[in-house]
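step=predict obj=Transcriptional regulator n=132
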Amino acid sequence: MEHKAQFAERLKAAMREAGYEPRPSVLERGFNQRYWGRSITFQAASRWLRGESIPEQDKLEVLAEWLRVEPQALRFGETAVKRVKDAQARWDAALNQEERETIEAFLNLPAPQRKIIREVILTFARAYPAKG
């Protein structure tokens, strides 16, 4: 299924879960009451619900807050959010405090110095491949 159509299905489900009928008029009215920028039209709400377009990030965040879902879950789905969280948990579990401090120091370096450090690390990695 195309990503726009998947978004539309998640939007409809979020609206139903929050107690709203997934109709363009309901979406238009509910969204415009909460959004401080330029109002959306009935046609824009229709396109979101039909899977023809996906709102910009600022609008997506308003939708998510209104419907009480995570913006990432609304945009990409729970499975994608879970994969990211699982990968983050594995990364967090694999590093000790000293390694975290080293990575933090690396990230705080200017880009040219990070490039040099990266080359040094990759050179060592090629010279001493992991045995596994």
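step=describe
The two ends are 39 Å apart (CA to CA).
step=end
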